[in-house]
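ok new one. same drill as before - structure tokens go in, u give me an amino acid for every spot. 31 of them this time. try not to just spam alanines like last time pls lmao
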């Protein structure tokens, strides 16, 4: 599963944490 959250509220920055394993950098660039 994926957990999406605002890393910097107001700046629109988003980070993705995938459990149990972290997805490739492509998922992080998806924001």
């Amino acid at each position: 599963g994926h957990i999406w959250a605002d890393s910097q509220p107001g700046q629109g920055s988003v980070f993705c944490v995938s459990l149990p394993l972290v997805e490739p950098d492509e998922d992080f660039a998806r924001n």
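The helical segments are 25-28. and btw The CA atoms of residues 16 and 22 lie 9 Å apart.
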